[in-house]
Known about the structure:
GO terms for molecular function: ATP binding; ATP hydrolysis activity. This is Arsenite efflux ATP-binding protein ArsA. Residues 20-183 form the ArsA/GET3 Anion-transporting ATPase-like domain. It contains 17 helices and 8 strands. By secondary structure, the protein is an alpha/beta fold. The chain has one domain: P-loop containing nucleotide triphosphate hydrolases (Rossmann fold, 3-Layer(aba) Sandwich). Strands 3-4-2-5-1-6-7-8 form an 8-stranded mixed beta sheet, with helices on both faces. Strand 6 (253-260), helix 14 and strand 7 form a beta-alpha-beta unit. Helix 9 (180-191) packs across helix 10 and helix 15 runs antiparallel to helix 16. The model is unreliable at 189-216 (pLDDT under 50).
Amino acid sequence: MTGTRPPLLDVDALIDDPETRVLVCCGSGGVGKTTTAAAIAVRAAERGRRTVVLTIDPARRLAQSLGLRELDNSPREVKTEGFEPKGELHAMMLDMRRTFDDMVLAHAGRDRAEQILANPFYQTISTSFSGTQEYMAMEKLGQLVADGGWDLIVVDTPPSRSALDFLDAPQRLSTVLDGRLIRMLSAPARAGGRGIRKIVGAGFGLFTKAVSTIVGGQLLQDASTFVQAFDSMFGGFRQRAQKTYELLRSPGTGFLVIAAAEPDALREASYFVERLSAENMPLIGLVANRTHPVLASLSATKAHAAADGLERAGDAPLAAAVLRLHADRVAVADREKRLIARFTRAHPGVALVGVPALPTDVHDLDGLHEIGRRLAGE
C-alpha cells in the first residue's frame, strides 16, 4: 500500500477489553457485514465473553451461518461444535412489530395498551412509519444493555446508508408523531372537534370531508383514537430513544465500518466515517473485507513474460496457466491496494484491518471461526 500506512485495527484487543460493551457494524450491501458481525461475536465468545449478536437485517443469513433454523426477538444460545468457547454465544433478529408492542405494554398500562394494540391505525404505522425500524433497533439495543447480562453486544445493521438512520430515528419519529397533521387527527377525539375547528376555522367541514375522502372516514377515526391513546406515553418513547442515542456515543460503544475493496463500497465507507465523525460517534475503524493478498513477490509483468516463454517453447502448459492466474491475482491485489490507499489518504486516522477472502462463501460456524481468525490477523 502506498503512502502513509493506516493504524492497524487490533480486533482481539478490542473484543478482549472489558470496557467494550457494544460494537455496531455498518456498511453498504454485499460487503459481508452480517458475516463479519457474526464472526466478531463468535471470536468474542471463543475468548471468554458472554456475547449476543443482534441483526436488524431481515435476511436469514445470520441464522443459517450460526446453524439455527431461524432467529426471533429474544436471544437464542448458539450451540458450537468443533470448538469450545470460553464464553457464550447468543443471537437474535429484530422483530420490529413485537418490539413496538412490548414498548406499548411497558408504557401504557394494560387497558390502554390493549386499546392501542387493537387499533387498525397502530397496526399500520407500527411497521410502516419512516424511522420505525431504526427506532425499534435502538429500543432493543437499550433493552439488551439494560439487561446487564451481556459482556458484549454486536449489532448488525441493515445494508446501505439507511444503516445510520438510527442516529436520526428519535427526532424523525418525534417529528412525525408531534407533527401538525397528527395533532389535527387527534383533535376531534380530544376536544369533540373544537380543537381542529380552531386550527382550520370555517373550513373544518371541507377539511374533514377532504381527508375522509382521501384516507377513509374509518381510518381518520382510527388515527384520531390512536393518537389520543398514544399521547400520554409519547414522552416516554422520546426519553428512551434519547437515552439509547447517548449510549451510542458513550465510551463503551464502538462503530466498525465494513467495506469491500471496491470503489462503490469504499465511497459508502467514506460517507459512514464522515457521518459518524460529524455526530461525534466513537469510530473504531474499517474492516476491508474479502481482500486478495498475493503470496509470492513475482510481479504481474514477470509472470506474464514467463508464461509467454513457456508457451512459445511448448513446455509446461500447466505452469504457464498458473503463472497467468498469479498475474491476474497480482493485478487485483494492486487495484485493491490503490483503492484502500485512496481511502486512507482521505481518512488517515482511521484504523484498518484487511480480511483475506475465503475460497467459498461462509455458511456455517466453521466459516465464521475462520473469518474471526483472519480478522485477528492469524
